[in-house]
Design brief:
Chain lengths: 389, 389
């Protein structure tokens, strides 16, 4: 068996260029760039100049069948991830799709079905923030039951400031037909993924969205969502792209503890010495008065621990590429399995759907209803063809 | 004109006792305790022992007509605030009601009508947190337009931990018939008031509540509410009484700045150098890339200022009493006018109503519908009589 897998990069834009760069820097020990393809002649010239030993293609299907690559990554507009993933898997090539897995659940389910039909191939997704050591540690803490049953989750993630010049940089950006949405499909999928990876998927959502707030765009750049986990627990998710001094604050309350994360860098973990209902039941009014007047040593009730971590530029992406390569080579478990990509798309779609219908939406919404309402927006926009499946 | 007003305290419980105490300590220069009344003989004995020079009554109506008091304060179960306020105003006595102004809008509107019929009398409400210098400063900043038009507000206020022993301390606590609700009518009215005092009232609300989570109580002790201001702005409000390591974090985003308050003690105020849409319009993609890669000096985009303040025990309450006394004596403007009490009750009712009906509720909901649904809960609970008006 070779000791390195050969990556085919589909699309040498900002992301594709970054992956090529971290591999060239040796940050991905078990991966080399086998080929690069791009429909833009200028990008192909750039590829030849920067990576003279790497094969360059115009058409991704030709690259897939060239024998130059073992795996591909899809750094292309979101709508294209499923069809490219399906084409690769159908040709015996492992597929790493960039996030989001697709724009709407119906196409993502087709991709997952293709992956299930080729279990010998690796199917992953670039949820690089799962490689943030802070979130990996928090997932371990929650999975181990250290904060007990989750009662409430709240994430405000508005560090995604994007000025008009960003939206104007590509014709497909922030359009219904070219991108399929705004902050929910472009910036926030990382948090939509982490939120569910750590806390589980909600059962329903009610949302209010803002479309083109302070920007000349048709899609949402403001989201306030209230979710219901179906077991008494609730949550909120707030994001937008016009908060220049953005907030990133994620809070998880359990019945045995609590986690508060600031800026995806620092976490305060509180662990109760007993489950909260037991602490509650064990206090009479005299104890309560002592607590209110500051006469109780809080250390007798809980412990607190702070974690901090930093991820240097490119390290998370390099780690996903390396984990993917190792899964191909020796079966090392994937941190970001491709099928997990459905969760964030489903939640993003449900948030859209609640805003479009004005109703609370089950996460088991009708895939066809979503696609029909998305197509209505693509039709009205008049810039790109409607989606057929 | 006398230089001090004489206060009649209705109910010598924890709050009434505190008001008597801060007045006795000289923290309210223009007020003396004129009389105390309580239906509990033990409390009357306590009053005579602690305040031997003060008249003590069993019945508040007798105290009102005794000539011993110029103003009364209602430190009694919430349902009673309106009827006691109305009785006082009807007898020519100034009325300071404790918060909340009442349990349901219909009774609060009757109180406000009584106050409007006696404009020569002062009508106030004990929103003591309006006296927190931090919130007063933030209100000035928002009112002056320093952060521009409000786009989003988010408050997580879960520092209201209350164990079972607290709920068991009185028969009326945390019942529909005796108290009229849980955290929305007892603990959170302060924040429901401050939120609207600073940011304005929302137009509608959608909510999910938890009833008796981890406690043997019928009423809500968990609230997640999503509000719509009707002009594109949204907000969330989260509170509960089972978070022992509680959070108090309030964020206001405007199109010219932002305020983040931690623990009601510390505020970070960001002021943009230009309105956000102008900053957005003035950046091309090259500027954006500089920003993403940390090559922009953020000082060129905004300034940041931190405020901190502390309120010693009792000072806020003493300040409300003093402000009320000065309004009676010389017309000094009230910081917490009684009519303002309607806003927090209306919002609390709308949050209940959304949970009870599963629908988004206008803040102009039908007062009678709310009362009917509240009475249905009082009936089911079977401990207290239904409310007639």
């Amino acid at each position: 068996m070779p000791d390195k897998v050969r990556l085919g990069i589909i699309g040498l834009g900002q992301q594709g260029g970054m992956y090529a760069s971290v591999i060239a820097k040796g940050m991905v020990p078990h991966m080399v760039v086998g080929a690069i393809c791009d429909t833009d002649p200028a990008k192909r010239d750039l590829a030849r100049e920067q990576y003279p030993d790497v094969a360059v293609y115009q058409d991704y299907l030709t690259m897939i069948s060239s024998g130059d690559v073992d795996v591909i990554v899809t750094t292309v507009p979101h709508y294209l991830h499923p069809e490219m993933g399906i084409a690769a898997l159908g040709s015996g090539i492992h597929a790493l799709v960039d996030k989001p897995a697709g724009v709407y659940t119906k196409q993502v389910k087709e991709l997952i079905a293709a992956a299930e039909a080729t279990p010998e191939l690796t199917f992953g997704i670039m949820f690089n923030q799962r490689m943030n050591p802070l979130y990996r540690r928090l997932k371990e803490i929650v999975d181990a039951g250290e904060i007990g049953k989750i009662l409430r989750t709240n994430w405000i993630i508005t560090t995604w400031w994007r000025p008009q010049g960003y939206y104007d940089s590509s014709a497909w950006r922030a359009t219904w037909g070219g991108e399929g949405g705004g902050v929910l499909v472009n910036q926030a999928p990382h948090q939509l993924d982490l939120w569910q990876w750590i806390c589980g998927a909600p059962k329903s959502v009610y949302s209010k969205l803002g479309y083109g707030i302070g920007r000349q765009i048709a899609v949402e750049n403001e989201v306030t969502a209230l979710v219901d986990y179906g077991d008494g627990a609730t949550g909120t998710f707030v994001t937008c792209t016009y908060d220049i001094a953005g907030t990133d604050r994620f809070e998880i309350l359990g019945d045995q503890g609590k986690i508060v994360v600031e800026d995806s860098k620092k976490a305060l973990v509180t662990r109760l010495r007993k489950p909260e209902p037991e602490l509650s039941a064990g206090m009479d009014m005299a104890d309560v008065m002592k607590l209110f007047t500051g006469q109780v040593d809080l250390d007798t009730l809980y412990t607190q621990e702070t974690f901090e971590s930093a991820s240097p530029w490119g390290q998370q992406h390099a780690d996903v590429l390396e984990n993917f390569a190792l899964n191909v080579l020796d079966g090392t478990p994937l941190i970001a399995a491709g099928a997990d990509g459905l969760h964030a798309v489903r939640l993003a779609n449900a948030i859209h759907l609640s805003s479009w219908t004005g109703k609370e939406v089950s996460l088991d919404f009708d895939d066809d209803e979503y696609l029909a309402l998305l197509n209505a927006r693509i039709r009205e926009e008049g810039k790109f063809p409607e989606r057929q499946t």
